[in-house]
Amino acid sequence: MQPPPPPRGCRMEHEATQLEKQHVHSVYENTAAYFNDLQSKAWPRVRNFLLEQKPGSLVADIGCGTGKYLSVNSQVYNLGCDYCRPLVEIARKKDDEVLVCDNLNLPFRDQCFNAVISIGVIHHFSTKQRRIKAIKEMARVLIPGGQMMIYVWAMEQKNRRFEKQDVFVPWNKALCSRHFSESNQSGDKGEFVHAVKTQDIHPAQLVISDCSYQTNLQPETDSKHSPSMEHCLSRACCMKISEEENRFYSALGRSFRSWFFSRSLDESALRKQTDKMKPLKNEGEWASSTVPIQHSRHCSLDLGHHGALLKEQSLDDDDVFMESLPLKKPQWSPAADSLKDLSLNGGHQSVAQSKSEEAAFINGPVENRDCGCGCNKDGAGKSNTSKFFKRTSTTDSTDSALDSAVSVGDQTDATLDTKAFMRYYHVFREGELCSLVEENVPELQILSSCYDHGNWCIIAEKRGT
Amino acid sequence: MKLLTHNLLSSHVRGLRPGGGFPLQIQASEVRVRPVPFNAAFVARLVPRLRWAALLEAAESLGHPSELPPEPAADYEGDESFLRRVHHILLEVEVLEGVLQCPDSGRRFPISRGIPNMLLSEEEA
């Protein structure tokens, strides 16, 4: 049982708002322009849920992002809303009916929707109370008998799990170029592909980013080369996209190098947050519950047990990014390198965000993305990783999540990408979402719950007649 | 923003009396009319969900009087001409630029490129 929270409501609420502003909203806003819907496939279960709604239903997608679910069922009226205006603008370009609003304060009258979906949204709320409020708001706008589907990122992933529930996930713009994304969004893909074909690019000349990753071939790579490097990268991206679009995009999602762990803002979680790495029980169950379309694996970085973790990680099977690009694997693995200068002083180091990567990650937890685990496969990488993460402050119940977030060590030699952004997630344990609803949202009755590609999913119905 | 969407929208400024945020008054500076394929069954299912008076008022305020009765007739489901008029006003008329104003608080929410921005500040929520 958890102790009752001390009376710090207002301060907690303000901190929560600030945390989300910095590590959710600002990140999505700054990266939205790079977002490309190709990276995000509609999840089968969500699709089915939408397709099962009766014609003429009013359906809301709360946290719709670029609106990939808004066109699944043309027999219903789909209304999407999101806090992030740039994402909503992208949906709008597809003629979706969308608006900008706050999940915690939905601008709808009571009981007006037949169905509501919340896919990969609730896990961005930084306190339990806010997560409850988000669910209650969605329940409020549902008609009695109406159904809600919620997807959140699971702590338990296939083969491994996050060490902690409250995490910052960084990513950086280096991994996808502006040129590529913009041209795709404008629908000029043909033109862009043409440009690519006329280029004489030797794979060995490709560099990963404008200021970060070193390649085996160009150890002096640094930000001075950014314009041409970005261009090279865009060509690389482009070449691959024209051939293996989906792989490229899913690879971006997998390129996340590492995880930072923050303290939970939840007062109830102020007890010690160290979890030991445990093998998943019923691992076979996870495997068999996956839908055989995409493949997801999110790496979790164990601060104290990197050895065990690395042993578990396999830089994958068919979906490994390295294999789909004409680049050598080592060029992609130095997670430590990429995060050298990152500090989490309120995330002030975050500069430009890679929108396409962000997009890959927006759907990261929900989509099936193999995570390019943040650890090097070679020995050097292992030690880099272990030096990499350290806590900036000791745990203290009055600390904000930002203050106590792990900061990156400064022990790597490579040039660093200082433009990574950190997105906040509260990953859910098995049963947590169900309990949250059962204990706090009596107006909802849970109909079903399952684990789907690294996410906990529930379908609940609004009680009443 | 289509008028069907508008019919669902309500202001949630803190401190409003129940129902005080609905319906939002539309002040449109740019309206577009665009055909949408008609589906009688679809429209018929929507009718009972609508706040009818608010719909008529919204249509009027856009300069698109709906030619709809003050209440749907009992046999509306079979009345295709009625359903077509409902279809038109709900789905084919869009506000691209303008403002939505909360009736009780006066709070104004902008509509830009067809997208209403319903975010409240921390103090207002």
UniProtKB/TrEMBL annotation, chain A:
One GO term describing the cellular component: nucleus
Superkingdom of the organism of origin: Eukaryota
Keyword Nucleotide-binding: no
Molecular-function GO terms, alphabetical: S-adenosylmethionine-dependent methyltransferase activity; tRNA (5-carboxymethyluridine(34)-5-O)-methyltransferase activity; tRNA binding
Domain Methyltransferase type: from-to ranges: 61-150
Lipoprotein as UniProt keyword: no
CDD domains according to UniProt: AdoMet_MTases
InterPro entries registered for this protein in UniProt: AlkB_tRNA_MeTrf/Diox, Methyltransf_11, SAM-dependent_MTases_sf
BP-aspect Gene Ontology terms: tRNA methylation; tRNA wobble uridine modification
Coiled-coil ranges per UniProt: none
Keyword list, A-Z: Methyltransferase, Phosphoprotein, S-adenosyl-L-methionine, Transferase, tRNA processing
Family listed: Belongs to the methyltransferase superfamily.
General function of this protein: May modify wobble uridines in specific arginine and glutamic acid tRNAs. Acts as a tumor suppressor by promoting the expression of LIN9.
Protein name, UniProt field: Probable tRNA methyltransferase 9B
Native species: Aquila chrysaetos chrysaetos
Gene designation: TRMT9B
From TrEMBL, chain B:
Organism: Aquila chrysaetos chrysaetos
Name of the gene encoding the protein in the UniProt record: TRMT112
Assigned keywords, A-Z: Cytoplasm, Nucleus
InterPro entries with a match to the protein in the record: Trm112, Trm112-like
Any one of the GO BP annotations: rRNA (guanine-N7)-methylation
GO MF term (any one): protein heterodimerization activity
Upper classification of the organism: Eukaryota, Metazoa, Chordata, Craniata, Vertebrata
Family named by the database record: Belongs to the TRM112 family.
Name of protein: Multifunctional methyltransferase subunit TRM112-like protein
Stretch forming the signal peptide: none
Intracellular or extracellular location(s): Cytoplasm, Perinuclear region; Nucleus, Nucleoplasm
GO-annotated cellular components: nucleoplasm; perinuclear region of cytoplasm
